[in-house]
Write a structure and sequence with these properties.
- There is one protein chain.
- Helices cover 40% and strands 23% of the residues.
- The chain is built from 7 helices and 11 strands.
- The longest helix is centred in the first third of the chain and has 39 residues, at 10-48.
- The radius of gyration is 23 Å and the shape is flat.
């Protein structure tokens, strides 16, 4: 980084700077493990000499395990785009108001999770539900490893509860899909032919407030070859909404290409791929008992309220590490 001309290419220099920060973090964690290991060895020597060390050794081993677990998680977040920001989309399944309310509950859960990690959340598009909840929401989650973490949440989430919208107080099952895309705007260039786009503008609605409703500032873009539709209505400017919609489209196209490659590789290897989108990954049961269970890893907890308040790291960690914890 001290070489002459290093900063001439600003983008490459910033990328190298980010990589340096990542490596420094790994080195610092490894150094801390070494120090903890030396302390553990010291206490083991004292134990052999007859000293009582249980009160000190236990917490030390807990620290060692926590650092090691953190490093292992970082290793699982070493994918090409894991460190970048994430574009998160949530859509209710069939079921009208009940599923729309569930989608809103999930949205709040992820916002609270992001707040706990000091991540920033920027709404790109929000469509209100007919009576309650939401029809769809797309947000940009800014923070280190945002995509790497949120990709563990891809799939369908299931809620079982006594419906507050049912006068007969019957039990209902609702579904909502969650999908994260890497925000690769600064990482890779995705070429889009303007002739392959249909761009529609319309008057913004929903939570934006009066200032977004006075002009046709919202933008909906359809990519004709793939049928992918993206939209943005968060900004006052039609130009800005178009820019953000294209950003979302590039992320969707990149993810689609990666998925196609993975499916082709699986066919060539004779493997059976489970589609991430459309598969039920987790159940949140509020009645007749209270339990959240991840069907991929077996991780479960009865602390449903805490989970819905954003405490989902245990599920994310287990999925990324490929472990089953109960």
């Amino acid at each position: 980084m001290n070489a002459p001309g290093f900063w001439d290419d600003r983008e490459a220099a910033e990328k190298a700077g980010r990589r340096r920060g990542e490596l420094e973090q790994v080195i610092a964690s490894a150094a801390r493990l070494d120090r903890l290991l030396e302390e553990v060895s010291t206490f083991e020597d004292l134990d052999r000499e007859g000293e009582a060390v249980d009160g000190d050794l236990g917490p030390l081993l807990d620290q060692f395990e926590a650092v090691l677990d953190s490093m292992e998680l970082e290793r699982m977040l070493s994918g090409e785009h894991d460190a970048v920001d994430a574009i998160l989309a949530i859509h209710p399944g069939a079921g009208g108001t009940e599923s729309q309310d569930w989608a809103a509950m999930l949205y709040r859960m992820y916002v609270r999770w992001a707040e706990r990690r000091n991540f920033a959340v920027e709404e790109l598009d929000y469509q209100d539900g007919e009576e309650a909840g939401l029809k769809s929401v797309t947000v940009l989650v800014r923070g280190r490893d945002a995509y790497g973490l949120l990709r563990a949440e891809n799939g369908v989430h299931r809620l079982v509860r006594i419906s507050p919208y049912d006068a007969a107080a019957r039990r209902h099952t609702s579904f909502a899909s969650v999908y994260a895309y890497p925000d690769i705007e600064r990482e890779i260039e995705i070429a889009i032919d303007e002739k392959e786009l249909r761009v529609d503008t319309y008057r913004s609605g929903g939570k934006g407030g009066q200032h977004v409703n006075v002009t046709d500032s919202a933008v909906r873009i359809t990519h004709l070859p793939t049928g992918i539709v993206v939209q943005c209505q968060n900004e006052r400017s039609q130009h800005r909404n178009r820019e953000m919609a294209l950003r979302y489209l590039r992320a969707r196209l990149y993810e689609r290409e990666q998925t196609l490659k993975d499916e082709k590789r699986a066919r060539e290897e004779g493997a059976k791929m489970e589609a991430a989108f459309g598969s039920q990954i987790r159940s949140y049961v509020l009645h007749p008992y209270r339990l959240v269970k991840d069907h991929r890893t077996g991780v479960e907890t009865g602390r449903v309220d805490e989970v819905l308040d954003g405490k989902i790291d245990a599920f994310i960690r287990a999925q990324l590490l490929g472990r089953t914890r109960s």
